[in-house]
Amino acid sequence: MMYDAEELTKAAATGNTVRVQFLLSEGVNVNSFNRFGRTPIQVMMMGNTPLAHLLLEHGADPNLPDPGTGSTPLHDAARTGFLDTLKLLIHFSADPKATDNNNLRPVDVAEQTGNLDVVEFLNRF
């Protein structure tokens, strides 16, 4: 049976790490786009660090911008305040200086949403 990007992004979005692992083992491209032009790491719940680690270990690109907003997964982690996921993304080469369509960096987004621990961490870059 052939599996596709829709299934992988749905599994990532719902936090189904076991299903994501299975689909990756079946050869679904970790950077494939769903019908909305988004990849699994772009749609995953940012608080699910084990899932983020799984995707990144399989080569997920943490710097692909969202087609609508220009936000990267690092912007999303900064906005939602998930410092562990944010640190993991940076460990896997996410660019802390990337800007979205409003010319905001992840640190700017964290400031706007009051995630001061994230701001403090990102100010090191």
Automatic annotation (TrEMBL):
Q: Which GO terms describe its cellular component?
A: cytoplasm; nucleus
User: What highest taxon heads this organism's lineage?
Assistant: Eukaryota
List the SUPFAM superfamilies hit by this protein, alphabetically: Ankyrin repeat
> Where do the ANK repeat units fall?
69-101
Q: Does the keyword Aminoacyl-tRNA synthetase apply?
A: no
Query: What sections of the protein cross the membrane?
Result: none
GO MF terms, alphabetically ordered: cyclin-dependent protein serine/threonine kinase inhibitor activity; protein kinase binding
Please name one Pfam family that this protein belongs to.
Ank_2
Q: Which UniProt keywords apply?
A: ANK repeat, Repeat
Repeat in keyword set: yes
Which GO biological process categories is it annotated with?
negative regulation of cell population proliferation; regulation of G1/S transition of mitotic cell cycle
Q: What is this protein called?
A: Cyclin-dependent kinase inhibitor 2A
Q: Which organism is it from?
A: Triplophysa tibetana
